[in-house]
Amino acid sequence: MSELYPSIAQCAVLAAALKILLFPAYKSTDFEVHRNWLAITNSLPVQEWYYEKTSEWTLDYPPFFAYFEWILSQAARFADPEMLNIQNLGYDSWQTIFFQRSTVIATEFVLIYALQKYIDTSPTKKTAHAAALSVLLSPGLLIIDHIHFQYNGFLYGILVLSLVLARKQSTLLLSGLFFAALLCLKHIYLYLAPAYFVYLLRVYCLHPRSIFAIQFGNCIKLGIGIISIFGAAFGPFALWGQIPQLLSRLFPFSRGLCHAYWAPNVWSMYSFTDRVLIILGPYLGIPVDEAAKNSVTRGLVGDTSFAVLPDIPPIWTFYLTLFFQIIPLAKLFVKPDWDTFVGAVTMCGYASFLFGWHVHEKAILLVIIPFSLLALKDRRYLGAFRPLAVAGHVSLFPLLFTVHEFPVKTVYTVFWLVAFLIAFDRLAPASSHHRIFLLDRFSLLYIAVAIPLIIYCSLVHHLIFGQRYEFLPLMFTSSYSAVGVVGSWIGFSVVYMSS
Amino acid sequence: MAPHNPSSGHKPRKRRAQDEAVSGGSTRNTVLVDASAGTRRPAFPLVAFLWPARGHVSPWFTIPIILMVAFLFRLATGFWGYSGSNSPPMHGDFEAQRHWMEITIHLPISQWYSYDLQWWGLDYPPLTAYHSWLLGKIGSIFDPEWFALDASRALDDPNLKVYMRGTALVSEYLTYIPAAVVLVRRYSRIQGVNSWEAYIALVAILMQPATILIDHGHFQYNTVMLGFLLASISSMMAGRLLWSCVFFVASLGFKQMALFYAPAVFAYLLGSCIFPRINVVRFLSIAVVTIISFALLFAPLILGAWFDAYRGIALPEIETPPLLAALPFPIDEKAWYYAPMFQLAQSIHRIFPFARGIFEDKVANIWCAIHTFHKLHRYSSTMVQRAALVATSAAIFPPCFILFLKPRKELLPWGLAATSWGFFLCSYQVHEKNVLLPLLPMIVFLAGETGLSPSIRAWVGLANMLGVWTMFPLLKRDELRVPYFVLSLLWAWLIGLPPISLSAYSSQVPNPVNVFTTLIHLGVYGAMIAWHFAESYVAPPENKPDLWVVANVLVGAAGFSICYLWCLWNLLVKSGIAPKSWGGSKAKEQ
Q: Can you tell me the ipTM of this complex?
């Protein structure tokens, strides 16, 4: 009796048509990064992959991703062999563009498959279908993958698949192994690993009824599985003694607290407060550190120093992240069901995004995508999801700054917000709990503010100031989005902890 | 209206209209019911996309979402090439449009139609000139270099491209899109089609590949002219005949190609003054409003010329326009009325270039097709022009006469389609892009009664797929191959047409197409697919370098002729002139 239309496949076809039309659109340096990796993996022996540095965009993803690039490069040869030449820096013939852009669309099939699985295994098909469509058509993926250029559709596809596999006891092991493989593709997913660790420990390694009955068979299976996956990824490099070099590529600790453009997290609010205090400081009698005054506004990727507020040592961000992960994980340990697990994954994403060191704005997908799977659970979840949907996507706008792409990102995002927030609103069931939080008014006001903000940042600022104070629109966007992300985090925490 | 309780001040939501959306009119052409399993499924993918909009969804949500999706596809098409990009010496339509903005903002109005005619001289009617002036003024705020007189010729600035793309989009969203929305809602209501199916038809109309590719790929402002036509049809359907005259003059005043529709519009308006009873007042008002509209259209041009003469700006040094030279009485070059007359005559001379050949390039009409086998150069151009006149008159007489005798709203799209097909196939000076004109009234059929049934969908689909296919040689020159394939295959998939799907030719659905039609259609689709393979993989023989283009023209002309006959036939059946039983399965009512 399920009349779920349009189907996932139909939406994928429509979206693919738009994505192909966007082939000639702006592409960031990430396009060149990936082209360079194609060239490195194709033309060098494996031993040299993590040492090669002709281009400044060295290989800094884990080995599975390098293998993935190697597989792609086998096909790339037929499109245009020139793109596989390491010396061809910045090479972008139209064959190269067609090839690389189509691999993004093609590998997104993993996501399509995973979302279909998600619908098939969901008890409430209608809401699951709507949530799945919202992920598939996410403006985040369109902006980051199909214009800016990355392979998140493929990677998040594996994440969703792994989450779906965690639904059934019989596929738990597979879920863990998929997640391990995902870690070997891109290490950013380490942020979510604590939730996996706790969940698999509780429901797979320990007995469901008693935490003192250890299921040794399962422990061994999981252990061997994970070790062999990591062995396949890192083993060869360990044999060659390249692990320190590899780790220095994967974890460049020399970067600053905030990225050049501040990701909308707690630290961006902290920086914003610092900026405001620089202006207000003299009136309030607070000492201002003159040397640090200009560092953030210059937008350099380097150590951020604050003029008024105390500096943040990296280890603090680590402790804060850990602290805000442990609380939801404790809850997961006590109540280990699938919904709580996905909630915990979302909470881990939130904690690391909000408090992490040198967080990139693209990492917001770590929160949005797991949250989407829960957003329709009931109206309280939806209430927390709404500001995140707005803030998370608006915060991605600065990734695209060219004129022609401006209407693409804004119209697409508005389309998505209108279509899905209305659909979600109609579909989300009422909550069985009492309403604790009055987020609705807040989120309506919040969404309304987005409109003048976008107009100011993209048009008015330029008319008033021209090229001066270029950091202002970025700072406003980031601080605005930070309010939304933090607000939705608080809302979700309440719902998660009280459910 | 639901009873209103004044004490509460709360107005209950109006549900009735929305309920009608589902119950009013049948959805048997779009929703297939599997009786045994009790499930329903969409008849073609486009229906699936509108599935969530069934029932209690306000048009205030549905229409913006449709318009945003249509916008995104237009915008994305704009990333690709345009006509004449980086192709000296003459560049293309993009340069022509830009050049008109340049001359209209810099030159006195009396020189618009006479300035350096060798470089894309202005040859469109005045509304295009005013439109260019406005866009040139606005564009100069962003960057005056884009439209610097003479210095900006053949500019290929990427920012200019973005600006021009933006103007095409904005112009379309101010004319074509609102007109299409209003027309679809009105026509579907007249035809008893439920509003949900009307939205499906609206999306099909807005995603029409040929229009998107020409306006937002190749680059032109056809949708403005087409939009005014839609507004004109819409006014006729609402019974506001005077407004329809205003809109039609606007359409004609934007692009003279709207003349394709003029005989049908004239016949309908005239018919509505005579049948069922003679209405002299209506006739006179129509005449007066039309004359006033034309006067307003030319007023700035003529007054401007007069004012320029008054200011002492000399008339352009070109030879006297033939129209002026042909006047039977002498006129004084010093008289105050000379400059305006000169201007009028020169603009008309520019707008209707009778001196050009019967066809430019290869176009899928009967003259090009005949020319393939029997060279037309051997006849004098007067002779060919007369032949074209006779053939066109013969082709458009039947549909116009039917509209004249039966001026009924529901016949309008059919009459307009048949007339414009007749023009496209038989007239003089036709471009391949002009196929947009007959395609427009034809695609409106989708919003009519049984419009989404296979019997009509298949035909509208064939005409559109064939239309965009005949423009492939043009689009290929503009580096628009990828958008061509993406947009046309996407549309075919959405509507359930070959080469993606054969669902429109299934015999298991209501209002199926008959076997004969199926064979013709599949033959045409087969020819199109085969042609694409041949064109890309087989080199034409040395002595016939144009072989594939000619093959394209022949298949196109044959297919379009069949479409013309189909429209005419349906017009006959629907008007009641031919008995219903002749309509066969095509016109069978449910």
A: 0.93
